[in-house]
Design goal:
Radius of gyration: 20 Å
Helix content: over 70%
Distance between the termini: 73 Å
Number of strands: 0
Order of helices and strands: HHHHHHHHHHHHHHHH
Shape: globular
Number of helices: 16
Largest sheet: none
């Protein structure tokens, strides 16, 4: 019972390595927004904090559906209920930030917020329980990927365009890969508990192929965006290659080796945090740039 309860302790249930997902998706939209609108740093920071809080809340309620199978394990049930209470605080804090942007941007922002909250709660809670029905990987692509990137951009600029939607694709793929890595890691446990994730439904071999194809699609989609002009330069993507190659091998190994797949995928995604400016090719209005940045550009790039 003690060993089982360890799985539900708050520190582990938070899955902090997955915070890279919220940070990458939110930063992608934020960096894109800085080129086309006046962005106050406090708005950007509060939006990033809200994204991480939302991810933390989703992680903490992830085990709530395990309660019926743990009726005889009082310690595990107590830890899960504690995590749900902490998740409620995370959701409330994220909602406070969301309310500010709803008041700022109007009903389109409200629609984005309601869609995001419905997806967050419906990920593991009934009656939707997208994870149990095998739709979690696809849902995360749209909700924690496309919606998060485009939502961040819209909250900060008040508009959407085709470029930011296209730029959200490789980031959304990475988001789905992190979830798929979790499913592959937990394949044996989920199958034993009757949790019908995509990996359990389709089989481990199919999930491994999908994971490898997803990694390849990240590279292909970035290259296509570079050819279309949506990505400024392509070479920063090569910096993630040393982290990606071991993942291709690790995903096909045994159960013990697969325990490191989610953290490895998280590190692969987190590399994009340090390089977001290289991936965005949205024209920058110098009049909207800070004075010190205008001086640097004028002195070093625009003088004869």
């Amino acid at each position: 019972m003690i060993a089982m309860a360890e799985k539900y302790r708050t520190g582990r249930a938070l899955r902090p390595f997955s915070f890279a997902v919220a940070m990458v998706t939110c930063l992608t939209g934020t960096v894109a927004a800085t080129g086309v609108a006046d962005i106050h740093w406090l708005q950007a920071v509060s939006l990033l904090c809200a994204a991480v809080l939302l991810q933390a809340g989703v992680n903490l309620i992830n085990d709530y559906s395990d309660l019926p199978q743990l009726a005889g394990d009082a310690q595990s049930c107590r830890l899960i209920r504690k995590n749900v209470r902490i998740a409620a605080v995370c959701f409330a804090a994220a909602s406070a930030v969301a309310l500010y942007f709803v008041l700022l941007r109007g009903w389109p922002a409200l629609l984005l917020v309601l869609t995001g909250m419905l997806g967050a709660l419906g990920y593991t809670l009934e009656p939707l329980n997208l994870k149990r029905r095998g739709y979690a990987v696809a849902a995360v692509f749209w909700l924690m990927g496309v919606l998060m990137v485009c939502g961040s951009y819209y909250f900060l600029t008040g508009r959407l365009d085709g470029s930011i939607i296209r730029l959200s694709v490789p980031v959304s793929l990475l988001t789905s890969l992190l979830l798929l890595a979790n499913e592959i890691r937990d394949f044996e446990a989920d199958r034993k508990q009757g949790c019908r994730t995509l990996t359990v439904r389709e089989g481990l071999a199919a999930a491994v192929r999908l994971y490898r194809q997803g990694l390849a699609l990240v590279v292909v989609s970035c290259f296509v965006l570079y050819l279309t002009g949506d990505l400024q330069i392509f070479w920063p993507l090569l910096l993630s290659a040393p982290l990606g190659i071991p993942l291709l091998v690790m995903v096909g190994l045994g159960q013990h080796a697969r325990q490191q797949l989610p953290p490895g995928t998280g590190r692969f995604s987190a590399l994009r945090i340090a390089l977001p400016y290289h991936f965005v090719n949205i024209p920058v209005d110098l009049r909207r740039s800070p004075p010190y940045l205008r001086r640097i550009i004028n002195n070093n790039f625009l003088t004869a």
